[in-house]
Known about the structure:
This protein is α+β, with helices and mostly antiparallel strands. The protein has a domain at about 30-125: Aminopeptidase (3-Layer(aba) Sandwich), CATH 3.40.630.
Amino acid sequence: MARGPDNPNGPRRPGDGSPPAGRGPAPKLIGHLLPVGERDALAHALARAGLPVDDVDEPGRLFWRFETEEQVPVGFGGIEVHGQEALLRSVVTLPPVRSRGIGAAIVAALETEALIAGCHRVWLITTTASLYFARLGYDSCRRADVPPPIAGTAQLSALCPTTATVMVKRLR
């Protein structure tokens, strides 16, 4: 059962994110927070997508498994919260449901989680998806402009190459 007045502790339904241009309404997804130690399926999906998996069980990483209202698994995503800044982590849509707006809905849900946590900006680093994230409102920036708490994360300091694109989106 979803979170709501009758079930305040149920899974959160993400807000309706804007679908990519030319698509129908954003799919409605349910996110389930993955506890540390129960992230094997996440690590497998990330590895298959060529994304870093080395630190998914480290403290401070919040990851969700997303599914449709019909309980069909569709992907994973996560954030790291550092004060008023968040780092978007490893968004992956499962292959059978790609190109249906699922990724954008996952990003919108994670942005909502960042807002709930009091974040003003969401940062990300990508080697292949800068055009995709630009369509979702993210702007490229210089690494020198990244605040120290985000610059010091494993993603920016060790896991991703220095040639990767850093992007940011203001939430408030």
